[in-house]
Amino acid sequence: MSSSPSSSSDDPKTSSFSTFSSSSYHVNGGPSFMRGAVFWEPNKPLTFEDFEMPRPKVNEVLIKTKACGVCHSDLHVLKGELPFPSPCVLGHEITGEVVEHGPLTDSKVIERLPVGSRVVGAFIMPCGNCFFCTKGQDDLCELFFAYNRAKGTLYDGETRLFLRGSGKPVYMYSMGGLAEYAVVPAHGVAVLPPSLPYSESAIIGCAVFTAYGAMAHAAQVRPGDAVAVIGVGGVGSSCLQIARAFGASEIIAVDIQDEKLEKAKLLGATHVVNARSEDAVAKIKEITGGMGVDTAVEALGNPKTFMQCVQSIRAGGKAVMIGLTLSGAKGEIDINHLVRRQIKVMGSYGGRARHDLPKLVKLAESGIFNLGAAVSRKCKFEEAGKAYEDLNHGSIVGRAVVEIM
User: Fold this and answer.
1) What is the greatest pairwise CA distance in the chain?
2) N or C: which end of the chain has fewer CB within 10 A?
């Protein structure tokens, strides 16, 4: 185990956590501790630490993690661009096996997710009971944003991760998937059929999930629509596949890397535009006969591509922003154009776990969504830090997955 650097989290607020985990706790006679990759402070390497075995509470499941996707959202935290409590365990798109339920868990949850179930987890883990969840808008779950994204805890205000020996609490980005075990609220989990592999299926919980939320709920793509996707990395390339599944007639992939654009053709793009060598907006207008697309999706999180997205849509069209960026960054828009041409600009953070996650599993199981084509690299648990470095340098085409099995 590597030594742990000092962290700013040594402050009084951590004393509010109970020492719920203990070294005497074993899972089904198995191990009493696990390994996890810990983020301590921006631009410092991840370290691998020993944790007490995490314990689920009511209506939560303990999952033995099999694979975890490598996402730009984690990278933003690693670089200090998105504020998040530290130390923490990142990783938020996982597959694994249910090994335990929390005490007093509802019998229907146990029936749906029995011990031994193969599962996939969504990064937005809905509580199921807040104002938005009761309206079916899991993607706006109040407790997820108030507790997990703001404080790095689950919905009782406590983490499930404690360092072995010291008992020091470690925060959770979603479920803290870069660890050998993860605690996930049951509403954020769906059953994964035996026909789908653990590694490739991990991306269902974020890359595919985010793309589906953008296309189905925000853009409401219909057969025959023209769609542009600006930035075709892991999430953007998933948007291409979802747009094709929804019957879009023109699917325009925009990026600055020819390698990504070549792959985009295999994932549903009918046209590709290299924004480094061409005016992306002008080219999109040319492809669509001067009109612009019905929907443009911005999957980078960049003020320049924000403007390209808005300028690429037809009158009455939708510009959907799904890329996260540096905290506080602003995008500009021509107000008169917005008003006169009925432009719709909206954000979309992800899908709705209880309704969408089972649908996405079926899309993958049927082959309509090609998971194998979307995953471009698999790496060992110990190589997680290197995968994020490569992602930062733009050398991962598609999605990388860390195998933790």
Assistant:
1) 68
2) N
pLDDT tens string 109-147 = 999 999 999 999 999 999 999 999 999 999 999 999 999
Q: Are residues 72 and 163 in the same domain?
A: yes
At residue 19, the pLDDT reads 42
CB-count burial class (<10 Å; 0-12, 13-18, 19+) for 117:
middle
| pTM, two decimal places | 0.90
Q: Residue 251 sits in which domain range?
A: 219-347
Q: How far apart are CA 200 and CA 400, in angstroms?
A: 9
Structure tokens given for 55: 């314990």
Retrieve residue 361's tokens: 């599993």
Q: State the alpha helices, DSSP H only, in 18-94.
A: 72-78
Burial 331-343, CB ≥16 within 10 A → b, else e: beeeeeeeeeeeb
Joined tokens for residue 216: 């189905």
The alpha helices in 288-349, defined as continuous H runs, are 303-311, 335-340
Question: In angstroms, rounded to a whole number, what is the distance separating the alpha carbons of residues 204 and 177?
Answer: 14
Is there a domain that residue 18 lies in? no
Give per-residue pLDDT as tens, 276-296: 999 999 999 999 999 999 999
Q: Secondary structure of 163-197 in the HEC alphabet?
A: ECCCCCEEEECCCCCCECEEEEEHHHEEECCCCCC
Q: Which of 306, 227, 294 is nearest to 267 (CA)?
A: 227
Cis preceding linkage at 87, omega within 30: yes
Q: What angle do CA 66, 127, 82 make, to 5 degrees?
A: 70
Does 26 fall in a domain? no
Q: Is the pLDDT of residue 209 over 50?
A: yes
Q: What is residue 110's three-state secondary structure?
A: helix
pLDDT digits (tens, 9 = 90+) for 177-208: 999 999 999 999 999 999 999 999 999 999 99
**Same structural domain, 131 and 58:** yes
Residues 52 and 67 in one domain: yes
Taking the C-alpha atoms of residue 274 and residue 255, their distance in angstroms, rounded to an integer, is 5
Q: Write down the residue that tokens 């860390």 correspond to.
A: 402
